[in-house]
Amino acid sequence: MLERFSTEGRTRRSSSAAVAGLRHAALAAFLFAGICAPMSANAAAPAGCAALQAKYPDLKGKKLVNAINPHTPGYEAIDPKDPSKYVGFDIDLGEQIGECLGFTLTYKAVTFAALLTTLSSGQADIVISDIYATEERAKAADFIYSKVFDGVLVAKGNPKKITGINTSMCGAAAAENTGYVEVPLIQALVPQCKAEGKPEPTMQLYENNANCIQAILAGRADTYVNDVNTVDQAVKAYPDKLEKAIAVTIPYSVGIAVPKNKPEFRDAVMAALIEVQKAGIHMDLLKKWNLDVNNFKEPDILSVK
Predict the structure, then answer these.
(1) Residue 211: inside a domain, yes or no?
(2) Domain that holds residue 206
(3) Chain centroid to CA 61: how far?
(4) Do residues 52 and 93 share a domain?
(5) Phi–psi pair at 149, nearest 5 degrees
(6) Given pLDDT bands bounded at 50, 70 and 90, which one contains residue 299?
(7) Which residues does residue 264 pair with via DSSP β-bridges, in sequence order?
(8) Residues 88, 119 share a domain
(9) How distant, in Å, are the alpha carbons of 84, 85, 147, 239 from that of 294?
């Protein structure tokens, strides 16, 4: 069974103002720690960037639009000190790539499900927003991608004894984001659960991470599967109420999406990302935002005709 929760519905069903205040305070504290963390690598662009600006001169001085879904603390979120700005690993990484190639970025906030349509319609030039690179999504955009791990978030004590994206989820209610790759992975468990004579898992769809996490806190959902860093940050915010059941490897990688009709731009972003990695900036940013350094990998391209 699949349930879709609107913003209005979530507001009616949200828990007390005190709980909401705690959530916002924890989020602000996490973001503030990232904002204040030192990043000496920001001082200058890597040496190889001058050659890239000479190779791709049309990008120099341009102002490009990055479509983001700013609801993933550590990756992209609204700056608690200035609501007109965004902060996080993806924000910093995008600006480092832009500095390397000579362009600057502005931001267009959209729902996660609208990221690629915003890109393909020409309303954005790039998507750097914790989006997984899949062959299905690569039909709409090209991806420069790296590896990622997922975590399984559950209530403290793991009352349903969930051990991963497997039949331990039979009969459980999963909260997931609309359009996320975890949705079909959980849906694929339905026939397996039936074959074992167990009830099928149900799913509630939300528009951002915060509402998925809130669904577990409120007792509406039993689990939430997402990027392991997102899960870890939720546990840090609510150590007495949430825990990570397990970290799992999924058959996807996190990527930067660019328009399919701009292969030169894709190649330029790929080359700049490699320079940023070689200079140690990518690793420094992972540490700055308290993200798992095991997520580091030299990038590849996923393009589907």
Answers:
(1) yes
(2) 2-14+149-250
(3) 28
(4) yes
(5) -125, 150
(6) confident
(7) none
(8) yes
(9) 32, 28, 9, 23
Mean pLDDT of 14-24: 38
Q: How many domains are contained in the chain? A: 2
pLDDT tens per residue, range 95-135? 999 999 999 999 999 999 999 999 999 999 999 998 988 89
84: Cβ contacts below 8 Å, ≥ 6 apart: none
Q: Please give the Cα distance from 72 to 208 (Å, whole number).
A: 8
Q: At what angle do helices 89-101 and 263-278 cross, to 10 degrees?
A: 110
C-alpha angle 185-155-8 in degrees, rounded to nearest 5: 75
* Bridge partners, residue 65, by sequence: 106
Condensed to tens digits (0 to 9), the pLDDT of residues 256-284 reads 999 999 999 999 999 999 999 999 999 99
Distance from C-alpha of 101 to C-alpha of 84, rounded to nearest angstrom:
25
| Least confident stretch, 14-18, 172-176, 291-295 | 14-18
CATH of the domain at 100: 3.40.190.10
- Residue 141 inside a domain? The answer is yes
Q: Are 273 and 256 in contact (CB under 8 A)?
A: yes
Residue 35 sits in the same domain as residue 129: yes
Residue 38 in domain: yes
**Residue 164 or 32, more confident:** 164
**33, two tokens:** 């720690």
Identify the band that residue 10 occupies on the pLDDT scale cut at 50, 70 and 90.
very low
**With bands split at pLDDT 50, 70 and 90, how would you rate the model's confidence at 148?**
low
